Fold these 4 entries.
Entry 1:
Amino acid sequence: MKKVGSRSLKPSTSSSNRYSPYPKPPPKTSASPSPSASSSNRTPSPTDGFDGGPVRTRPQRAAATGGPRPSNADLFKQSQAAGLQDTHAARPANMEALRTEKDGPNDNLNMLAHYGSQAASKKGIFASGPLDPRGLGPQQVQTAVPDRDKGEHTQVFGKMTGGETSSTKYQQKLGTAEPRTDYEILHGMGHGEGGKKTQSPNNLASASHGANTAMIPPDKAISGNPDVIVDTKFAMRPGTQRAEYVDQRFFHKDFPDQPFFQQRIDGDRPKVTQSEYKQLKEQVAPLSDAELLRGAAHLMNFRKKAGSSGGDT
């Protein structure tokens, strides 16, 4: 299977809609201070664990601040500022609302224009090469991994680029950034699948926000299944940290020469829309069933052997 990518919807204010996990703020009274008056809970730490620049804190929820519930857009901006978006490691939280944008009437035309431009400039999946391969090689998915250091991949990437820790600024300086496109530090194998070894320079590359998002549903589907071997590769522009495209590939451990899932993702892919993300999740949903996946892999191999011996396939 091959595939060639944040604005978020504002939360509804209707009380008849779905249950909200956020506690309602207490009603305002003359004795109750306004949310803006309670500023001590919102004061960030004076230190920054990433690069010593402007203070960056984790997104603040209403339960922590005592104020009104933040919008999804606010949460995304705070996550972006803290560097929490630069990985496609599998996570228990639903990142869909933070990483996708609303569908629009011109989505198909915009995508067509994007790939027309890519073909003309020989970028992304149309790059003619020569390109340098990068990846960890075949790696078995771990059943569980410890929490990652969320700043480690940024520090490693900074060493790879000679000091630039921003993937977007790196591509802009390189002259390869598409207009109005955000870039991120991608993991070939997600940290949620492989743990500490995935923070290696061989597993990191610069590609678009949309490319990173497109990798998430398959990664989440196979997370924790040790029957799966991940062999995702970047096609790198020589002498740079830019991935022209990503070949995301999964194998069953009993049949390491035959991928049961693969997709090629444009390194400049535009942001993923909500309907695209939903489609991606539906396509890879069967991969999350370990028993079904094992049976399908064996059946696929059986049919392959039957075909090679002249049997009816």
Entry 2:
Amino acid sequence: MSAFATASATDITVSAAASLTNAFKEIGAAYEKEHAGDKVHFNFAASDPLVQQISKGAPVDVFASADQEAMDKAESLKLLAPGTRRDFATNSLVLIAPANSKLALKGIADLQQAAVTRVTMGNPASVPVGRYARQALEQAKLWGAVEPKAIFGTSVRQSLDYVARGEVDAGFVYATDAIVQKDKVRVIATVPTATPVSYPIAAIAAGPQPAAGRQFVDYVLAPAAQAILARHGFGRP
């Protein structure tokens, strides 16, 4: 029995957007309980660098992205196992400030105030939350005013940390990130985005565990994992 369990145990490697950190750790633990002996290893970072790692041969079985653009890149590089790409969660973009901030901020237009000197967001060149923020600011004709104040984070969690530590006046993160640091940041406003904030997941074609990768993708879309995502503030796909 134990020899069989060891022989059939599988290590699954999942590269996932930084905003999924808390929810996916819980999903991984639940998956391991249901699949005795299996281990789920996570690599959390901004979505674009994860695509680069996979394209360079990193042994990854599953990729979960915070926007469609990063997953489109992975698809164009033929990294995805055909037919496995699915949307599994939604989110929203929010403007946050340190909990003890004295600035009178009510919305993104207030970022033009002279008193606001540092605004953090993910780097739009490589971080989905930065792309969403830039699109929203461009749509509101505010990008020209805000860009000179921008402090770009390497991931949404870095931007969250900057705000939580009071190192910036305001920042753009996802609603689910604001919940993680709810004692240290406050949500100023939910920011409408030109493109809905949706999260796709797919198995990686060259992954070391192709069958297990597909199984994990299916698990993320099943009710137990969807309930975990909902508890962490994510919406349904």
Entry 3:
Amino acid sequence: MRILLVEDDAMIGEAVSTALKDAAYAVDWVQDGKTALATLDSAEHQVVLLDLGLPGHDGLDVLKRLRQAGRDLPVIIITARDGVDDRVRGLDLGADDYLVKPFDVNELLARMRAIIRRQSGQSSPILSNGYVDLDPATREATCSGVTVLMSAREFALLHSLLLRPGQILTRAELEEQIYGWNEEVESNAIDFLIHGVRRKLGAGVIKNVRGSGWRVGTAP
């Protein structure tokens, strides 16, 4: 999943960005409100992690403009402002959640997983197409009674496909979900990841649609 991190503190931004990448998220990190608004207009993200005390445009202004534009992109505010009035204002402006610094990264990841489930219409924490079950909390996949641990990027690829069972995703779409802005992507990277998933779970788990892309099947 592709995440936009809006955080002007270099130390916090680096720590959160690294933790998200370790948890198999593609992360784009910007450090001011103006760049955040421009990025939201030009790129596709699944969740925004938004600090409030930003140069250029305050985080609440970024949130307000995002909602005024009709965007329902999930937003989690991450800020040192712990006053009740700040939390109420942020939630009333359309934030989906509010997390006060300092916070535990595992709690942030759990809140992100909950929001992503709601956004995709999933009630269960386990993603499944009827053949493969994927646990986002542990990165474990189960198929035909066998449970294996996926690498971070194998998980990211399988997660993207299982969110849209039956839908074909192109190479470019999968790369966008798996890799951040500054990460070099080799031409065969997706093929390599698909080979790894198939080796662990079986050749039929991910289906190639010649000339179009890849998909996972749906249960009858």
Entry 4:
Amino acid sequence: MRHDGASELFAYWNDLRGTRAAPERREISPALIRSRLSDTFILRASGASEARFRLAGTRICSIYGRELKGQTFTSIWQTKDKSVIARIISSSLTTKTVVQSTYEGKSSRGRKMLFNLILLPLANEVNERHLLGMITAAGKPFWLESDAIIENSLRSISMVDPLQSTVVPVNHPLQEDHRLVVANRLLPAPNGSRRVRHLMVFDGGKIPD
């Protein structure tokens, strides 16, 4: 993993889980990731409902110009990407796969910024499933946190089998036929996708600008 924040959080999560597919939520100690709390969040899905922000760090809320707690994770994505994001979240919650993504955020004044996202699954609880995540900006423009990001658009995704700890990156996943291609040689194709050789194809992606 190329980004320090994501690397630190992944290493912490990886140490906690040991030989398991994912650690339990109660094992997460905020004190041990104190320096990264403002960039972290937890998603919660109850039953078959859509994943929502259970907690969101102060910097993340500042970047988006609003309190995210209680809002759906898909609410911060552009319409064309919502179905893909929902399927990837569902797959990660079900199969305990780690997700890494690069996306572009568009501000209320039309400014654009690249962000890095990591999603780390946590062990299932009674009728609830959780993901620990982190969002970090790829730079520090003067306007960030004052000109709110109003929507995200996907640029790349990779998925990880936690028992293999192997990342297969995708540099150009957004195709002209409106499909998002996710490289993953280790995992079965989740619902709403199909395999094409070593790739998983999710319907509902977008054409790059």
